[in-house]
Amino acid sequence: NTLKLMQTVYEIDQLEQLPVPQIILAGRSNVGKSSLVNCLAERKKLAKISATPGKTRSLNYYEVVPHGYYIVDLPGYGYAKCSKTERAKWGQLIDRYLEGNAYVAAAVVLLDSRLTPQKNDIDMISYFRQCNIPILPVLTKSDKTKQGERAKIQNKWQDILHVKPLCVSSKSGMNRTKLWNLLDKTAMP
Ligand code: GDP
């Protein structure tokens, strides 16, 4: 599998219904979302790795080649330095994207493997659950944590979510194939 960037949406009025299965990628700014897109695509610069976290405020639509389903990369949330208006705009764009969208198969929620469960992550997950979107939790930067520490964080998330997060690393490629298999199975049941 690989990814092809098809569209970048900054404004609500650019949103169009896309009648193919979609998997959301969501996570706090700096969690490693762009790096994961690049890792999945096996390309170095498909998604811009943010030098200034929280700067990208767009929805990025990637087609999964050759299957034809989409991965929709949502703008990172919870960046402290972004203004209230910017945050409101973020919420509106996501609300509108999800509104009446029956094609969303799941949300991959990226969580930092070094951090205990954070409130903004739990809020995001609750929001997706309210929209009846299944959650696929993924722990990022797993190359940075020792297995024991990672297992503890993984168990904490499992207690909260009742699903065990998959540990990945964009640096080492840990569980890249497993994640692709999970995405394929979810989008093409
Ligand atoms: P985004 O804001 O969520 O898109 O995060 P980025 O992909 O831009 O990554 C944020 C920072 O974390 C960058 O400095 C990356 O090099 C680093 N990073 C991302 N993924 C990994 C990983 O799997 N391992 C390690 N060691 N660093 C990572």
TrEMBL record:
Q: Which InterPro entries match?
A: G_ENGB_dom, GTP-bd, GTP-bd_ribosome_bio_YsxC, P-loop_NTPase
| One GO-annotated biological process of the protein | division septum assembly
Enumerate the CDD domains for this protein: YihA_EngB (cd01876)
| Listed NCBIfam families | GTPase_YsxC
Q: Which family does it belong to?
A: Belongs to the TRAFAC class TrmE-Era-EngA-EngB-Septin-like GTPase superfamily. EngB GTPase family.
Q: What does this protein do?
A: Necessary for normal cell division and for the maintenance of normal septation.
Protein name (database record): Probable GTP-binding protein EngB
Species the sequence originates in:
Maridesulfovibrio ferrireducens
